[in-house]
Each structure stands twice: as C-alpha cells, then as structure tokens.
Amino acid sequence: EANAESARLVADGLARGALMELASAAPERADAMVRDLATTENGWRREDLVTIIGHRLTDAHRSELATTSDPVRLSELMRDVGVLAPSTMLHALHAEGVGLDEVLPLVAAIGAPIADAVRVLHDEWGADRLAAGRSLGATVDELRSAGCSAVEMLAVAPREQLRRLDQREHTWEVVGPTLVEAGYTVAEAVGHLAAHAPTPETFAAGVATLIESPVEAFGVAGRTAQVDDLIALTERYGLDHIESAGVVAAACVPVEKAVAVIAARSESDADVTAALSARFLGLVEYETMALLRGEMLADVVPIGAAIHHALDDSSLVVAALTTPEMPSGSVTSVGLERL
After folding, report:
1. What's the alpha-carbon Rg for the chain, to the nearest Å?
2. Distance between CA atoms of 332 and 230, rounded to whole angstroms?
3. pLDDT tens, 158-208?
4. I need a surface site. Which of 11, 110, 113, 325 has the fewest CB within 10 A?
5. Rounded Cα distance, 98 and 70, in Å
6. pLDDT 10s digits, 24-37
7. DSSP string over 244-307
8. Using CA atoms, how far apart are residues 308 and 284, in angstroms rounded to an integer?
9. 271, exposed or middle or buried, with CB in 10 Å at 0-12, 13-18, 19+?
10. Nearest to 244 by CA among 224, 264, 220, 269
C-alpha cells in the first residue's frame, strides 16, 4: 500500500512536471496554469511559478522571481513576462499572502481592469466591493460589471439604479426596504422614491411598505412629494376625504399641498373642500378659494389675517352685528357668514 501511494505521488509529480513544461511553451497555457495553482488550496509554490514563466526572464530576473519578498517587485516581474493576465497576477499575489492594503496600490501597475480587480479583491481578500471600488475610482458601470448587488448599487448610485426599474407596483414595494438596507434612513428612502418613482402609484407603494402609520408617512413625504403622489398615498392607505384631511393636517403637510389633496379627494367640490380646510387646517373660505385658484397663501395672508383677527375679536363681531350699513360680501360679512 505504501508502494502504491509512492507510485501515485511519483506519477502526480511527473504529470505536474509535464504540464508545467507544456505551459512554459504556450502563453495561454502558462496563464491558465498559474491561475489554477494560485486558486487551488495548498496548490501554490513559488518554484512552480519560476518553472512556468522564469525562462522568459534574464537569469538575474529569474533569480529575483524566485526569491523576492517585495510584492511590488514580484508584480513587476510577473508583468514583464508578458504572458500573465492582470487578474491572474492578482490571484498569485493573494496566494503569496500579500495583504489587501498592499495589493490595492498595485492594481493600476499591473494593468488590471477596475471591474476585474474589484471582483478578485472581493473573492480572494473578502473586500467590500463598494469600498474597493471607491479606492480604485470605479464608475457605476464598473461596479455593476464587478457583480455588485442591487443593494450595493442603490447605496452608491440610487438615481441610476432606480431609473432602470419598471413601473410595476410590486417592484417599488421591494425598492423601499432595499433602500433602507442599503444604508439610507427612512426619510432619505422616501426622498429617493419621491424623486425617482415613475408614477404616483409606485411612489405610494414604496412608501406604504416602509411606513405603517399614514400620519408618519405624510409627515416624512409631505415636503418632498408632489401633490399627485400624496393623493395616491391617501388612496394607498385607504383614507376617505375626511380622513385624508385629518391626516394632512396632523402631518403638517404644507398648506398649498394639503388643500390640493383635500380637493382631489373631495372630487373637486369647492364647498366640501372649504369646509374640510376650515375644520382641519383653520383656513377661512377666502383663503381656500384662493389656493384652489392657484394663488400662493402668502399673497392672501393680509386679507386672511384680517378675517381671523375680526373673528377672534369679539368686540369687532358685536360692532359688526350692530352695523346695519355693512355691505354684503365684504371681508367682515364673509367672516360672519362662516361664523
């Protein structure tokens, strides 16, 4: 049995030697052989590297190839041979025990494409793809080619990734949690959804997946989302027009957007919109009507403030009630009618 084992070892050695001899004569075989040795557990020996490619160097350089412990010099010698692919050289450096911090500066020197380098650094050294890519100045396309996951790509290039997605609501239900997994806060994730979701319905799908409470959702989305997005969000949460008014008020959605949402959910009924805006937002009818006409609230504040002041001042109300010549339709009479 011992003799049989010895015979196998001798045969393996002869076969290995024959393969190396063949590899030394053909460049493509040399590259494949070095790669195989470097990526096989316990298969790497420096003398095998010298056997395969050493004859392509001068005697002095071949001696350096066999003995140098400097990763930079070893990289230069492997590169100068001219038959090894950059990724093969990276595998060889890993087999030699070169650390990640030492190998990163060598990537450019050996001519490794960024995507290939990121992939090898991840596979061999366990390097984070994004961290390695940043160190090497990788582009979005190079990171994608290096095999970065959807989560990793969202972390580094949310705009590019989100613009590639389809318009199915289910897709965007997945996007919301994936953005959070990629490292964004819920508020940041909602901001990306507001900026890049292709339809109001997909925006609402993403937000509702992230946030259970309608008030919280509108509190986060109210300032960044468009009115159509907010309308879709009320529908996503199953709110009726009254509930929608209560939620936009409780969430402090900007008043122009809040009135537009209430109007849409009230089927553009101006009277209902005015009543709900008064009840939940504290607006007088004149202010609501102005907003529905597309005017900015700041432009009607002086009049609105006068109305509020008149309504809040009981002496003015009493005086108005006892003034028979007050013209119908005036600011004060409007306030009194609503009172």
Report:
1. 36
2. 34
3. 888 888 888 999 999 999 999 999 889 999 999 999 999 999 999 999 999
4. 325
5. 9
6. 556 678 898 899 99
7. HHHHHHHTT--HHHHHHHHHHHTTT-HHHHHHHIIIII---HHHHHHHHTT--HHHHHHHHHHH
8. 8
9. exposed
10. 264
d(CA 92, CA 197): 45
User: How far apart (Å, rounded) are the C-alpha atoms in residues 78 and 97?
Assistant: 16
- Whose tokens are 């692919």? That residue is 85
Provide the percentage of residues in the chain whose pLDDT is more than 70.
80
Q: In this structure, how many other beta carbons lie within 10 angstroms of the beta carbon of residue 188?
A: 15
Q: Is there a contact between 286 and 257 (Cβ–Cβ < 8 Å)?
A: no
Q: Of 145-149, 164-168, 220-224, 329-333, which range is least confident?
A: 329-333
Estimate the crossing angle of helix 297-312 against helix 285-292, to 10 degrees: 170
Q: Any idea which residue has 């050493």 for tokens?
A: 54
Residues listed for the chain = 339
